[in-house]
Amino acid sequence: MQGGSSGLSPAQCRAARALIAWSEEELSSASKVAKATIAGFEAGTLLPDEQTLQDMKRSLEAGGVFFIAENGGGAGVRLARSASASIDTDETETVQYEEYLKNDAPPGAGG
Description:
Blueprint: H1 10-19, H2 24-31, H3 35-43, H4 50-62, E1 65-68, E2 76-79
Antiparallel strand pairs: 1-2
Helix pairs in contact: 2-4
């Protein structure tokens, strides 16, 4: 079962929730769509009206999901880039990961 012209499929809805770690309850609260409607849509047993699909999609987008349209490679979802991301992007600090600290160059390689 595919979504309407909103471009939201059940698989995209499930994947979008997983990306931002939202439960059906959290999507229900954000979109004002009944949890049972979300569960039925994601299970492929219910096709909500277009307005409901749009409400769900807009809420997921507001939560940080970017929807990728069907373009020959299949429709999908990814995390949207956000200027207000909670990731620390202070580029004045160098982070070194333990696995990269090991000297694996042959002797005399310089560096």
